[in-house]
């Protein structure tokens, strides 16, 4: 692919059928669906060519699939009805959404369409493009609540063999083919600053041309402006992502009834996820809805080898670790590791804390800890069976590297020693607060171990952990055998400091069921469309208040395909 910027840094205005803003997964899917129909597309992105694919490239590659062959091989019984019931229990859409009423009406339609997609075309569509999946389906967001409330009733998290890069790859191939055919013009280092409107219709964009920068994928790039350009088109599609790297914006929109997002946070997305285009779309008359709905994680740890600013990695935990607040109090049930990410996050933020703790031991870490991101999973990303066997044996190199290099992994022989190290780390962090009482920590561990020793127990987390081992995948690779934390064969003890890790925006540009942007009055803003995270993964918020995981990449795929096809037909 070539960047069509002239040597003087100013690109001449070009007419095209569609301008797509953002070369991440949703933008690539939209653009290639359009070019497959013979439409001419200019695809703009503010980052250098090295970052083609956006956030999706860095992802774990998890996809929410329903009643898949992988599930059936594991004797998991799933269906559209069960999955959609789980979705609605998690989303908690405003009353009337199912009847086409209220601000959630389009989010509801996109949600239903997505679950139908996940139970139908998603897998065969990707399979035909060469995408494959790790056969052991994972159980994310277990919920732990009664039927009808948040959580996945069964495992649905399908990890792509090759992780995020393998999801992105077929669409990069299609984009290159479209480029060679003269249908797709991909222009890097173009930052859109405003939309052009003519008689109330969006007819193009104005963009700054940024200086060339040879930084690597995901690394912060210069914002030096070398020129400007105005481009015209029959339609413009916003595929620019959310606000995860803009911590000030995230804090400003965070729901007041959930306390506050802390001053010290980590970023789970590159710096370019800045929310700029949401403001640009709003300034041109598009409605932004559900801006207070976000999907951040409470289990972040600072990356020992950061790529972008405040780069954090999420621990994907099994259910055995004790989860403590900043003062050593146990998080209430069912806020166990891996059950309800947003519930745990809101518990932290309503307390006003900037961190929480996992307390466990070496054996639990080796069995239950995984890390988010393609770069933290070289076995799956590199499709390496030998490395995968090392993970199964509890010798994951990335986890071991964090355990050895991270200042947030604290090892000790006794609870008292562990508490002293936890307090020392908190005291050394500017602006952080919290204190762990050594005697209280020891008593908590003793009480937990006594429950495990019964072989049954009444402690909800102990019971839930035991139940998890009934699923063959959890027993094999994700859930440690129930033993005392202080069992000598499993030591030493470990505490891991967890920070808030920003990630996804669940709200966004309000759109109808085809992706056309709407005004605050609910009218179509002609010429403007939105996909992916910028559209709240469909309709301005297909997830409602909570996500079931594996639904973000899937949401980018679904919105890009649906809107790309609808727009191609409309032109």
UniProtKB/TrEMBL annotation:
Residues 17-553 form the FAD-dependent oxidoreductase 2 FAD-binding domain. InterPro entries: FAD-dep_OxRdtase_2_FAD-bd, FAD/NAD-bd_sf, KsdD_DH, Succ_DH/fumarate_Rdtase_cat_sf. Keywords: Flavoprotein, Oxidoreductase. Gene3D superfamilies: FAD/NAD(P)-binding domain, Succinate dehydrogenase/fumarate reductase flavoprotein, catalytic domain. This is Oxidoreductase. The lineage of its organism: Bacteria, Bacillati, Actinomycetota, Actinomycetes, Micrococcales.
């Amino acid at each position: 692919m070539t960047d069509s910027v002239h040597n003087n840094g100013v690109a001449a205005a070009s007419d095209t059928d569609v301008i797509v803003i953002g070369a991440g997964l949703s933008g690539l899917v939209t653009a290639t669906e359009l070019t497959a129909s013979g439409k001419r597309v200019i695809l703009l992105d503010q980052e250098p060519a090295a970052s083609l694919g956006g956030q999706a490239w860095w992802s774990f590659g998890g996809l929410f699939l329903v009643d898949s062959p992988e599930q059936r091989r594991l004797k998991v019984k799933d269906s559209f009805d069960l999955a959609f019931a789980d979705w609605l229990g998690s989303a908690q859409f405003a009353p009337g959404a199912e009847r086409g009423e209220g601000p959630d009406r389009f989010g509801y339609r996109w949600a239903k369409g997505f679950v139908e997609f996940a139970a139908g075309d998603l897998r065969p569509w990707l399979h035909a493009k060469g995408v494959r999946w790790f056969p052991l389906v994972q159980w994310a967001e277990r919920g732990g609540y009664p039927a009808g409330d948040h959580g996945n009733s069964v495992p649905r998290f399908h990890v792509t063999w090759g992780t995020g890069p393998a999801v992105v790859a077929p669409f990069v191939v299609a984009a290159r083919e479209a480029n060679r055919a003269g249908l797709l013009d991909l222009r890097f280092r173009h930052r859109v600053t405003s939309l052009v409107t003519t008689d109330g219709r969006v007819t193009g964009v104005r963009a700054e041309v940024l200086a060339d920068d040879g930084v690597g994928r995901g690394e912060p790039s210069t914002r030096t402006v070398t020129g400007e350009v105005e481009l015209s088109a029959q339609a413009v599609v916003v595929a620019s992502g959310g606000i995860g790297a803009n911590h000030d914006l995230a804090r400003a929109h965070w729901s007041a009834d959930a306390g506050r997002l802390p001053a010290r946070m980590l970023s789970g997305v590159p710096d370019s996820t800045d929310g700029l285009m949401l403001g640009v779309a709003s300034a041109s008359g598009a409605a932004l809805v559900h801006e207070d709905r976000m999907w951040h994680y409470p289990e972040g740890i600072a990356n020992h080898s950061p790529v972008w600013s405040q780069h954090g990695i999420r621990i994907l935990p099994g259910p055995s670790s004790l989860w403590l607040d900043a003062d050593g109090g146990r998080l209430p049930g069912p806020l166990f590791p891996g059950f309800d990410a947003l519930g745990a996050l809101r518990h932290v933020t309503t307390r006003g804390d900037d961190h929480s703790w996992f307390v466990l031991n070496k054996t639990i870490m080796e069995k239950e800890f995984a890390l988010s991101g393609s770069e933290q999973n070289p076995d799956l990303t590199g499709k390496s069976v030998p490395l995968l066997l090392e993970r199964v044996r509890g010798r994951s190199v990335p986890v071991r590297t964090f355990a050895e290099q991270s200042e947030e992994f604290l090892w000790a022989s006794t609870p008292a020693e562990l508490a002293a190290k936890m307090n020392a780390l908190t005291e050394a962090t500017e602006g952080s607060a919290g204190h762990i009482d050594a005697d209280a920590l020891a008593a908590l561990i003793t009480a937990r171990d006594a429950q495990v020793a019964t072989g049954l127990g009444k402690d909800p987390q102990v019971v839930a952990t035991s139940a998890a081992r009934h699923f063959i995948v959890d027993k094999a690779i994700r859930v440690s055998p129930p033993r005392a934390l202080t069992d000598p064969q499993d030591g030493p003890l470990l505490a891991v400091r967890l920070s808030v890790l920003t990630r996804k925006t669940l709200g966004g540009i309000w759109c109808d069921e085809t992706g056309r942007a709407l005004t605050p009055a609910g009218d179509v803003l002609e010429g403007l469309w939105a996909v992916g995270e910028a559209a709240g993964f469909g309709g301005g918020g297909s997830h409602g208040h909570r996500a079931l995981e594996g639904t973000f990449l899937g949401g980018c795929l679904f919105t890009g395909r649906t809107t790309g096809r609808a727009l191609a037909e409309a032109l």
